[in-house]
């Protein structure tokens, strides 16, 4: 699922550049699986459809819903399987703790359900949660950060034990793995895990690392690496940990450093899409590391410098949906 940018979003000053990234994403995704594109209105849909057709993109379904922004990872539904059947969870989205406009984005899933897009049942959950705040191994363990989930602008009435209980019940997981360290400069999500550390398989975690003592991230990411080394699999074995470099620093027009991270990769059927940042050395290292982590998948680099101008990257603008959850699509 992609929620396509338009002139009414913060992307307006760089719309051409960001639409090119979205087009490349659509091309890469549809080589391997179907794509749902959410458009603001019919005129928007017609323009995107023409653009994608001109770039040879097929296997696309379009849906209409007004939007404030385009971060589908955080406003899209989160899929789970129950008795081998897909189900969609529609969490409350509040603009990362009220930092940005969100009312339209919070209603997108309901619009899609009302339009008959979903073949799977969708349940609204009265709990604030963004998809970028959690990462699962698909085998009972869920990785997240205290900095994000315990921020009082989300679920202020719940303590850590209560939040953990909700996550266990909602996702059917048996373990919550909490991290207390690591956050990227320029990140406005309060430390989403998908910028920091990701499962590649149930025994492997790739994570953002920094080997420059003069970099502002050095101490925090070193402390996070120590936490990751202390984690254990259900068997008691340590995780196989794969460090991903930080790319060279990028800044916005005000001088704020932007949260460029290779941990924001996207796993799709048969491939892994990896953000790149015009840093030939670090890009190559990250692509090589993830090729090692996913030897049976195609590794596809997608230039994401335009995306980080709004403080997110490739995984942030996408949301995978379980097979069988969309009407008329595999």
Itemize the secondary structure elements and their pairings.
Elements: E1 2-3, H1 15-30, E2 35-39, H2 42-54, E3 60-64, H3 72-75, E4 78-82, E5 85-92, H4 95-98, H5 103-106, H6 108-114, E6 122-128, E7 134-136, E8 141-145, H7 146-149, H8 152-155, H9 160-171, E9 175-179, E10 197-201, E11 204-208, H10 218-230, E12 240-244, E13 266-268, E14 271-276, H11 280-293, E15 298-303, H12 305-308
Parallel strand pairs: 1-2, 2-3, 5-6, 8-9, 11-12, 14-15
Antiparallel strand pairs: 4-5, 7-8, 10-11, 13-14
Task: Describe the protein.
- The structure is a single chain.
- With 330 residues, this protein is α/β, with parallel strands linked by helices.
- Helices cover 30% and strands 23% of the residues.
- The strands form five sheets. Strands 1-2-3 form a three-stranded parallel beta sheet, covered by helices on one side.
- The longest helix is centred in the first third of the chain and has 16 residues.
- The model has no long low-confidence stretch (mean pLDDT 97).
User: So what's the overall shape?
Assistant: globular
CATH second-level architecture: 5-stranded Propeller
Radius of gyration: 19 Å
Q: Helicity, in percent?
A: 25-40%
Quaternary class: single chain
Beta-strand segment tally: 15
Quickly name the level 1 CATH class. Answer: Alpha Beta
CATH homologous superfamily assignment:
L-arginine/glycine Amidinotransferase, Chain A
For the sheet with most strands, the description reads: 3 strands, parallel
The helix-and-strand class reads alpha/beta
* Fold-level CATH name: L-arginine/glycine Amidinotransferase, Chain A
